[in-house]
Fold:
Amino acid sequence: MRTAQLLDPLSTNITIALGWVLVASGDPDRGLEELERIATSQPAYGPGRATLALALFARGRLDDAVATTTRAPAPLDVVWDSTLGFLLGKAGRRAEAERILARLSAPGDRPEAAYLVAAVSAGLGRTDDALAWLNKAYDEHSPWIPWLKTDVQFDALRGDAGFKALLQRVKLD
Structure:
């Protein structure tokens, strides 16, 4: 990732990916620094703020993660909504998370929707619903499935037999 960033230092997505990889691989301070730089320089860019919020959550900083999501200029996109719904559910703000869940689970033609609904369901502590939506996401070839094994939104599901079976089905375990 460092090489990619050297080749294209202005790439927002490379910086976001680098930040997440650093957080996930044991260098959270440097990873958060990269993610905070993007969130500060481009506050309206949903993926950057969403990744920063999840990185803060992964570091046990739920209040900071929620603050990062609620300080956004406006709801930014469906991934942003999903991250916000997940974090609000974790923070016990169920009514707000439920509204986001209803919006995301409304019928539509978005291949990523099932995975995003699963994340909000997980945030609300609805393991069975989250697993059902994750299986649907796999069946629908969601572009988010490759992240399943490391996505912090599903950490609470890791010990569940259904989650383990899904990881085997996806060939991530």
Summary: The first helix runs from residue 2 to 7.
